[in-house]
Each structure stands twice: as C-alpha cells, then as structure tokens.
Amino acid sequence: MKLLCDRILHDGHVFPGNVLKVDSFLNHQIDPALLDAMGAEFYRLFEKEGVTKVLTVEASGIAIAIETARYFGVPMVFAKKSQSSNLDAEVFSAPVISYTHHQTYNVMVSRRYLSPDDRVLIVDDFLARGQALLGLIDIVRQAGATVVGCGIAIEKGFQEGGKLIRESGIRLESLAVVESMSDDAVILRNQ
Ligand code: 5GP
Q1: Residue 191, pLDDT above cutoff 80
Q2: How far is the centre of ligand 1, averaged over its atoms, from the C-alpha of 99 (Å)?
Q3: Which parts of the chain are beta strand (E)?
Q4: Model-level pTM?
C-alpha cells in the first residue's frame, strides 16, 4: 500500500532490537486518514470472506482494527492483556510472548464475544515472530470460530512470523513488508 510505504520511509525510525518505530502516525500519535485508508484496503482484500468480527490485541492493534471493522460493518473485539473487573470470568485465553515488552502475557477474550458461527479477520499493526497472531488464532479456534485471514499493517519480512502463518495455511495480507532494516535505512519489498 503506497500511502503506508511512503509514510514508513518518511517517518519510520529503526531502534535497537530490530524495532521499527512508527509512533508518529501508527503507535502513539495516530493519523486517522491513513488508518481509514488501511481499513478500506483490508476491506477490499477480504470483502468476499463473509467477515463477522474483526479481532486484534490491545493496545496498538485497536485503531487499525476499528477502522477495518467500520468498513465491514461488524463489531471489533480486542484481546485484553490483563485481568480486570471489566472482563467476564469466562474467557478464551492464550499465552503470547511480547516482542517489544520481552514478557509473556495471557491474552483474553470474553466467551460472549466469539462464537462458532463467527468468521474472524485478525488484524494487527506489526508481524515479527508471529506470537501475537498465533495467540489470537488459538483463541478463535477455542471458540470454534473460523479464521478467514490475517491483515497486518507492517510485516517484518526478515523475521519468521510471515512464513509461520502462511505455512499454516492461513491467508496473510500485509500492507507493507520490510525486507531489511539497519540504523540508517529501511528497505521495503517491491518499492
Ligand atoms: P510478533 O508477536 O509477531 O513477534 O510481534 C508482533 C507484536 O509485537 C505487534 O503486536 C507489535 O505490537 C509488536 N512489534 C513487533 N515488532 C515491532 C516493531 O518493529 N515495531 C513496533 N512498534 N512494534 C513491534
């Protein structure tokens, strides 16, 4: 997606540990027009899949997922990373090793918000080692629902997550794929 690729090249910064910082438009300050365009693109890619729910994990997936869900006209559900009095006692849960926080979270979704007749599009901001997606896929399967695919804003193509998800037979669409990055350059695929 040209709009997103241009923005990564213009405003992205590489941090130690293979972390691409995009917090001026995606992860902290958010550009609503760009996120709206990303939602429209995911809709174009998955519109024939009969999506009934868009699922992500808090926090940085939420903005993209809500724009996407708005195009599909379906609810957006986000998995929570901590227990709270807001969360039902009955949850689907799966462990996720966080790439950026170097910590394992139990991500949780109330059993009320996923059911066997759901066709779920999973959306997230980044794909690195695939841990977040695998956790969310696990939750959808616990609910007996169907994963129709995964939509990722930025896939780091030099890490193993993309291969892992595609080899599992799940459709994966990434709006931008980072081929490689170093302290002073980000190289995108097909740019
Ligand atoms: P994975 O679970 O695929 O290893 O990592 C994906 C999760 O880690 C995403 O939800 C995202 O929040 C975070 N993440 C992974 N790599 C990066 C990165 O390069 N930059 C940022 N900002 N977040 C990342």
Answers
A1: no
A2: 5
A3: 13-15, 19-21, 53-57, 76-79, 91-97, 104-110, 119-127, 146-156, 172-182, 185-188
A4: 0.97
